[in-house]
Design a protein that fits this description.
- The protein starts with 16 loop residues before the first helix and ends with a helix.
- The chain has 220 residues and is α+β, with helices and mostly antiparallel strands.
- The mean pLDDT is 89.
- The protein folds into 2 domains: 141 residues, Sandwich (Jelly Rolls); 73 residues, Winged helix-like DNA-binding domain superfamily/Winged helix DNA-binding domain (Arc Repressor Mutant, subunit A, Orthogonal Bundle).
- It has 7 helices and 11 strands.
- The strands form 3 sheets. It has a 4-stranded antiparallel sheet. It has a 4-stranded antiparallel sheet with strand order 2-7-4-5. The protein has a 3-stranded antiparallel sheet with strand order 9-11-10.
- It is 39% helix and 24% strand.
- The longest helix has 24 residues.
- Strand 10 and strand 11 form a beta hairpin.
């Protein structure tokens, strides 16, 4: 059952089986179609989510409607937990990048568990620190790295330890993650291909030919 996935997240893994089972019983399963919004910035917050299968973008929009993707989350990722503590509205938009199945768990059952087991608050602190570090890194990238460097870094992130990988997002979504126009990101990718660092097969299959050069370009 999808709700069993709760026990694999950093937040819930330390819970004893009987407590975890109580939370599972109160969780529900939601499905989203590709490009469907789960919530928008400013919406009321009342639940957190774990991705069972699929992919979502955490994004913000500028006043002129341009979207910047702050993060792309996949299977097993937890999100939407921060308003658990302050009831603040959603601070970003969440949109499905593919057909997605989510586990939804309301805040109140989680708050009851935290009141009974306050030591779990240290787990929350660790999660918040991880998010802050990721935000700091993204801000530093935006200030100090040019578009080719940011593009190289995001491609390496998506490839992981594989040399051949399928791009998990569209070109428009990749551009939003990089924080640049699609034309500038495509120009950077074309440059990597010409230099012999990268090979593109079909529409979304990529092969890294020179990882060291791509890694070096991602830092300057």
């Amino acid at each position: 059952m999808e709700r069993n996935l709760l026990g694999t997240t950093d937040l819930f893994a330390p819970l004893p089986p009987e407590v975890l089972e109580g939370l599972r019983a109160q969780a529900t399963v939601r499905t989203l179609s590709r490009n469907e919004w789960l919530f928008l910035k400013g919406d009321a917050s009342d639940a957190l989510y774990v991705i069972d299968e699929g992919r979502v973008a955490i994004a913000t929009q500028s006043g002129d409607g341009r979207e910047t993707v702050l993060a792309v989350l996949e299977d097993g990722a937890l999100f939407g937990e921060l308003p658990l503590f302050d009831d603040a509205p959603r601070s970003a938009d969440v949109r499905a990048l593919a057909d997605t199945t989510l586990i939804e768990l309301g805040y109140e059952p989680v708050r009851r568990v935290l009141r009974e087991r306050p030591e779990l608050l240290w787990v929350i602190v660790r999660l918040v620190v991880q998010r802050l570090r990721a935000t700091d890194e993204a801000l530093a990238d935006a200030v100090f790295l040019d578009v080719p460097a940011r593009t190289a870094k995001r491609l390496l992130d998506m490839a992981g330890d594989k040399d051949q990988f399928a791009l998990p997002v569209t070109q428009e979504e990749l551009a939003a993650i990089v924080g640049a126009s699609r034309e500038r990101v495509n120009k950077a990718i074309s440059l990597f291909v010409r230099l012999g660092w990268l090979e593109i097969e079909g529409r979304s299959s990529y092969r890294i030919l020179d990882r060291e050069s791509l890694q070096n370009r991602a830092t300057i």
